[in-house]
Description:
Elements: H1 2-27, H2 31-51, H3 56-69, H4 73-86, H5 91-103, H6 107-120, H7 125-143
Helix pairs in contact: 1-2, 2-3, 3-4, 3-5, 4-5, 5-6, 6-7
Amino acid sequence: ELSRLYLLQVRTLLPSVHVRLAAEARGDKDKAAEAREVSRVVYLYRQGIAAFPDDVSLKSGLAWFYARQRMNLDEALTMAQEAFAEAPESWEVLDTLAEIFFVRGQPAKAKEFSERALAADPENPYLVNQANRFREAAAREDLR
């Protein structure tokens, strides 16, 4: 059991280390290092999902990463929708879906999922900021 828990922690925490390293490489304009770190993030998440297929946080984490990197958006949406089917009340999954819809140019859908995430955890300042961000984007879209 300790081994399983250790592996789960490695699969959930280690990707965030490589996300930071990718951001540093981007800031240093080192495209090769950035690509290497992005590849490591995806690899670690995929390994985690294979080892723990019922862990929605891993699916949501990879989907979120894809959205933030503006890559593999179709796969991100599919993965987030799978996580949503398994955990429809999870604010993390709802927020991931909001981010994906926003990046895909659907601010009204982003707002919808963001509002649901905020309803799940109304005191979360991050979710308040996200909801405001998507409300503003949806309002701008409505003005067009």
